[in-house]
Design goal:
260 residues; alpha/beta; Rossmann fold; 9 helices; 42% helix; 15% strand
Length: 260
């Protein structure tokens, strides 16, 4: 059967890389496109695992050769998905997950409107700030200027949620993973007639609840917290109370590395 292309986008630090990793542990036949990037490896990252690391000059040569399905500049570094990833997944009859930013997502949707698009949101700016700080701490330094730059970027990226078919709010990791799994299984059922082996009706209900048109009530507090529903000149983050230094976060691990 033909594989399905899934696009997953989110602001940096929203936890989408963790969601993708957990999904692939539970659902077979799902390939993951390892992005190419010009940024330097962080911490324990390995070439070919989290990213394919390359130089800016080599990346630009790949762009000129038309080797990328999509590419974009994010926070001063280039990122891209090689066309080869899609070709290989199709040859194997597998689905393919693209973990990409909103710029890359727009490029892929324009070329392949049949792709399934999923947007992952953090529940509020306070949680996102904690995740970004935890990631910086894991890398050995907390750069508050960088944290707030990414928070500002998150607000702008979240405005693009209307371009995506499904919306996930990553507040509780286990629930978000179950919702992502339900979306994949439901799309396989509707597009390929693939049987859902366990609690099929419930799986379809969970997936349907994540469709953008059915998510408005769930999204309203998130959009309000990020100031999306305010006029542009009145936009401000609603952080609530300052979290404790050891505040735990169930939506993401400390080493989350999703720049895109």
């Amino acid at each position: 059967m033909a594989g399905i292309l899934f696009i997953i986008s989110a602001p940096s630090g929203s936890g989408k890389s963790t969601l993708v990793s957990e999904l692939r542990k539970q659902v077979s036949g799902v390939d993951f496109a390892v992005s190419w990037t010009t940024r330097a490896p962080r911490g324990s990252e390995e070439n070919g695992r989290e990213y394919n690391f390359t130089t800016r000059a080599d990346f630009e040569r790949m762009v000129e050769a038309g080797l990328f399905l999509e590419h974009a500049e994010v926070f001063g570094n280039f990122y891209g998905t090689a066309r080869r990833s899609l070709d290989e997944a199709r040859a194997d009859g597998h689905d393919l997950l693209l973990d990409i930013d909103v710029q890359g997502g727009a490029q892929v949707r324009a070329k392949m409107p049949e792709a399934v698009s999923i947007f992952v949101m953090p529940p509020n700016p306070r949680v996102l700030r904690t995740r970004l700080r935890n990631r910086s701490r894991a890398e050995g330094v907390v750069n508050e200027e960088e944290v707030y730059r990414r928070l500002a970027a998150a607000s702008r990226e979240i405005e693009n949620y209307r371009e995506y078919g499904y919306i996930l709010v990553n507040d509780i990791l286990d629930r978000a993973v179950a919702q992502l799994e339900a979306i994949v299984l439901a799309e396989r059922f509707y597009r390929n007639g693939e049987v859902i082996a366990y609690r099929s009706r419930r799986v379809l209900e969970v997936a349907a609840a994540c469709m953008q048109n059915n998510s408005q009530e769930r999204l309203k507090p998130v959009l309000e917290a990020f100031g999306i529903l305010n006029a542009p000149d009145q936009r401000q983050f609603n952080f609530g109370e300052e979290p404790a230094e050891d505040e735990s976060d169930q939506g993401s691990d400390d080493e989350e590395s999703d720049d895109r």
